[in-house]
Amino acid sequence: VQLVESGGGLVQPGGSLRLSCVASGFPFRLYVMNWYRQAPGKGLEWVSRIGSDGTETTYSDSVKGRFTISRDNYLNALYLQMNNLKPEDTAVYYCAKSLIERGQGTQVTVSS
Questions:
Q1: pLDDT band at 99, cuts 50/70/90?
Q2: Burial of 109: CB neighbours in 10 Å, binned 0-12, 13-18, 19+
Q3: Which of 3, 51, 63, 110 has the fewest CB atoms within 10 Å distance of its CB?
Q4: Residue 81 pLDDT
């Protein structure tokens, strides 16, 4: 399993970012996929989940209404559109097949 995230960066409060993740080494189209995040000094937090065909999505209360998860099974890609970002969204974001199968992460920093 290989998962490679990209798209993180520094953004001002209220701004937007789109994270991407490219998967390989397993039949991506058959698996539910997740985004997790880990803020400085805190534990791993689940953010969002998407069903294998992309029709079912769920979100944590902390991001609901601001973040949108999506996927492209032809490109083996997972996305997270993040809008109206807040300083408390600052974290390393991970694309994950499971809690223990995730990428190296991409840093998102929300600061003025």
A1: confident
A2: middle
A3: 51
A4: 98
